[in-house]
């Protein structure tokens, strides 16, 4: 399913606050933060010229977030960054002087961090990022997980020192419980979704994602004409759309938001013209995108800066994983998790539909950017779906010419 953005605000400039959140100043702030992380390396931008030729487009680039900070997903940029910002702000308040990224290891800052507890709900990846940020500074951390979070992903979060709290129901239920528990216990919620009265911290999480967009633009030989980006609550898609709108202005690419057809809350929000909560249905293989309520701040940005919304099926997602693992001859193999290849799945669906291609202007001159938002964060699940060990795929390099 594909719909063009019907919102009356489509194409309008971002609100001033959102422009400040995702514009050039945000990119500069992130650069200062990343300069003080010794584990920071820009993630690869991978050209897939053979698949581009197969799809009938001029170029296809994939930004591979599977190695970000050793956490396996783009989420590593958001939650940890928000935790660091919040600790430094609290330290500045208590110490009565400016505190910057260079002070992250200072004893007086770590002593203050040790008095703070951060909490969030997660499908797996956001919780790892929040836990890593808390561990970096010596804060406590509680992560709420619902029944759909796999044991391997729960273990990875616990391995970073976080307390695991199990919640019945869906991701959205765990978001509500994280807010309730935090209010009762004096914890700070670092959520990747927003609701009335709670926007600043999700905004910081989104701001962290600007770094990968900036890296992609710097590495591409020419700016993209089209971007396909996946959405859960919409934070990633909004960060990508908003930064591209601020950075490129009238030259911004056509941006398509891609969701699972079993959890398409952003598409339904676009139809309704306001953030909506949809009914939970059957679980989706794209577990990191299994969200049923759109983030308020994300929708405010997407209403203006997204151009189309579409869904992909379970089979589409698994096919994208396999296509990246077994690439066209001459292209590089890529390890993409269940949700990681969803943007590419959207492109593959559009490429095979003449009407959709025409609606999006996705012709022979198109230069496409997609994001591999996660690697094999559950290796057993990856083997089940792809039939290959992710370590072998990662070491395969380019497919031989045939």
Automatic annotation (TrEMBL):
EC numbers, comma separated: 4.3.1.15
Tryptophan synthase beta chain-like PALP domain segment(s): 38-356
Cofactor requirements of the protein: pyridoxal 5'-phosphate
This protein's UniProt keywords: Lyase, Pyridoxal phosphate
Top-level taxon in the UniProt lineage: Bacteria
Enzyme superclass (EC): lyase
A GO MF term: diaminopropionate ammonia-lyase activity
UniProt entry tagged with the keyword Cytoplasm: no
Name this protein carries in UniProt: Diaminopropionate ammonia-lyase
Organism from which the protein derives: Acidiphilium multivorum (strain DSM 11245 / JCM 8867 / NBRC 100883 / AIU 301)
């Amino acid at each position: 399913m594909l719909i063009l953005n019907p919102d009356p605000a489509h194409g309008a400039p971002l609100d001033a606050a959102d422009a400040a959140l995702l514009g050039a100043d945000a990119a500069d702030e992130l650069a200062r933060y990343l300069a003080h992380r010794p584990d920071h390396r820009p993630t690869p931008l991978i050209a897939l010229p053979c698949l581009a030729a197969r799809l009938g487009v001029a170029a296809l680039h994939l930004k591979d977030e599977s190695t970000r900070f050793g956490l396996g997903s783009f989420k590593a940029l958001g939650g940890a960054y928000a935790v660091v910002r919040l600790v430094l702000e609290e330290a500045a308040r208590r110490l009565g002087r400016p505190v910057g990224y260079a002070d992250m290891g200072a004893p007086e800052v770590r002593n203050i961090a040790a008095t703070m507890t951060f909490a969030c709900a997660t499908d797996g990846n956001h919780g790892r990022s929040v836990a890593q940020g808390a561990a970096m500074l010596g804060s406590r951390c509680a992560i709420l997980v619902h029944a759909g979070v796999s044991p391997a992903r729960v273990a990875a979060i616990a391995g970073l020192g976080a307390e695991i709290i199990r919640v019945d129901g869906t991701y959205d239920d765990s978001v509500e419980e994280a807010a309730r528990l935090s209010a009762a216990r004096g914890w700070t919620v670092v959520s990747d979704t927003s609701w009335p009265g709670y926007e600043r911290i999700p905004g910081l999480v989104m701001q962290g994602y600007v770094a990968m967009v900036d890296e992609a633009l710097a590495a591409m030989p020419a700016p993209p004409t089209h971007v396909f980006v996946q959405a859960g609550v919409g934070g990633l898609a909004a960060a990508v759309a908003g930064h591209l709108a601020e950075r490129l202005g009238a030259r911004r690419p056509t941006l398509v938001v891609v969701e699972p057809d079993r959890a398409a809350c952003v598409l339904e929000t676009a139809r309704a013209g306001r953030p909506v909560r949809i009914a939970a249905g059957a679980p989706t293989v794209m577990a990191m995108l299994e969200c049923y309520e759109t983030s308020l701040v994300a929708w405010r940005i997407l209403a203006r800066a997204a151009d189309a919304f579409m869904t992909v099926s379970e089979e589409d997602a698994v096919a994208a994983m396999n296509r990246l693992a077994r690439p066209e001859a001459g292209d590089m193999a890529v390890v993409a998790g269940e949700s990681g290849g969803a943007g590419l799945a959207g492109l593959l669906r559009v490429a095979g539909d003449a009407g959709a291609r025409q609606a999006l202007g996705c012709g022979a001159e198109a230069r496409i950017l997609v994001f591999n938002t996660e690697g094999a964060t559950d290796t057993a699940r990856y083997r089940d779906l792809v039939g290959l060990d992710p370590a072998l795929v990662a070491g395969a390099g380019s497919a031989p010419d045939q």
